Amino acid sequence: MNYGQIFDKAIDRLHAEGRYRVFIDIMRNKGAYPNARCFHGHNGPKPITVWCSNDYLAMGQHPKVVTAMEEALHDVGAGSGGTRNIGGNTHYHVELERELADLHGKDGALLFTSGYVSNDATLSTLAKLLPGCVIFSDELNHASMIAGIRNSGCEKRVFRHNDPVHLEELLATEDPETPKVIAFESVYSMDGDVAPIHAFCDLAEKYNALTYIDEVHAVGMYGKRGGGISERDEAAHRIDIIEGTLGKAFGVMGGYIAADTRVIDCIRSYAPGFIFTTSLSPVLVAGVLAAVKHLKGSSDERDAQQANAALLKRKFADAGLPVMDSVTHIVPLMVGDPVRAKKISDILLAEYGMYVQPINFPTVPRGTERLRFTPGPAHNEAMMDALTDALVEIWDRLELDLKRAA
Q: Is 64 a catalytic residue?
């Protein structure tokens, strides 16, 4: 058995399909986001502008967040000391869980090391606790949700994306006494569309199902206090479990769920992904705590980000670039080919100093490869004009179609 040859062939397949992923060597400039330094392919750092960060509101650069992390480091040190069962609950964790529960109007919350882990651990544990459970999953749910459902070993039913009619058809075929969970996202980050939350909740009530919503691309971004789409649409009280991340709009790292205290206690007590994992560093938690508190009281960052996203969409459309329909802060530009998507990304970085990562399969279906832009509060109009001009030049160079105005 030639193990090395097997691994070589696996990587060769990715190269042949044009979807081998290259991670950029980068350092962000504190206090100057979206400016950064790129070390990839250069003798020393080259200044670049970042266009694809999930630090949507630049909270990872916010003075309150940085100061809170510095103070925590000097107060308690770097690490948490182990799992919460062994190392204890650092008080920062207790405070943050209270803030997150309050953010979503729930009785309790539970921290995890990432959004992926929170989805995987919660969904897999939840289904195991419900005898004969069937999970109804949107077909475009994130890989972490799919992993959690698979790891639960329960039956699953996949419904068409954002389709309450198809969901009801599937729900109606199940025994009324069967435990059911409807799992979906609020904002789908590759297309930028939004789930019909109230329609799904109506079906959950009609068929006696629990609701589980992934709000990772919406927490901090929507709602008066940053509670996500479920807050904005006044639906949070109808959702049984709200899952979110601390690494996107809140700018640091981690994941969480917010729910009834009985659910929180069960996941805390039964989920291996929580029990056997070293808890988040209190330094990170302190930073998130500052970010959550700030965004509960400030809409300035959200308003500026939404305005910039709308402006960039309009500039792309006016230039004839194939910007996809999006009702959120996500600005996807369709390419439809993995090799060309990578080529556009490479040219932008090497020649224009603009960084955007190509999005390929399995993140999106084959044939829908794209570039995904996430303009933040600090991206100005001059930056957007320069980006738009660069993309038009590259589109022409590669002989791609533009929707030219008549």
A: no
pLDDT in the model for residue 279: 96
Q: Which of 106, 248, 313, 315 is catalytic?
A: 248
Smallest Cα–Cα separation from 402: which of 313, 334, 350, 353?
334
Which helix (H) or strand (E) segment holds residue 109: the answer is: strand 108-112
Q: What is the reported pLDDT for 42? A: 65
Measured CA distances, 325 to 52, 189, 314, 329 (Å): 18, 12, 11, 11
Contact in structure between 56 and 226 (CB atoms under 8 Å): no
Quote the CA–CA distance of 157 and 309 in Å, as a whole number.
35
Supply 130's token pair: 């419900």
Q: How far apart are CA 154 and CA 345, in angstroms?
A: 40
Residue 21: per-residue pLDDT: 86
Measured CA to CA, the distance from residue 34 to residue 54 in angstroms comes to 11
Sites in the chain below the pLDDT cut of 70: 42-43, 403-406
Distance CA 250, CA 294 (A): 10
Give the pLDDT of residue 402: 81
Say if residues 194 and 161 touch (Cβ distance below 8 Å): no
Alpha helices (runs of H) in 45-163, residue ranges in sequence order: 63-76, 84-87, 91-104, 115-129, 143-152
Dig out the tokens for 373 from the structure: 């832009």
- Residue 406: what pLDDT? 34
Provide the CB-side half-sphere exposure for 167 (13 A, CA): 27
Assess contact for 267 and 122: CB atoms under 8 A. yes
Token duo for residue 375: 């303009």
pTM of the shown model: 0.94
Question: In 3D, which of 82, 26, 96, 22 has the Cα closest to residue 256?
Answer: 96
Peptide bond into 34 cis (omega under 30): yes
Both tokens assigned to 318: 């006016």
Q: What is the 3-state secondary structure (H, E, C) of 1-45?
A: CCHHHHHHHHHHHHHHCCCCCCCCCEEECCCCCCEEEECCCCCCC
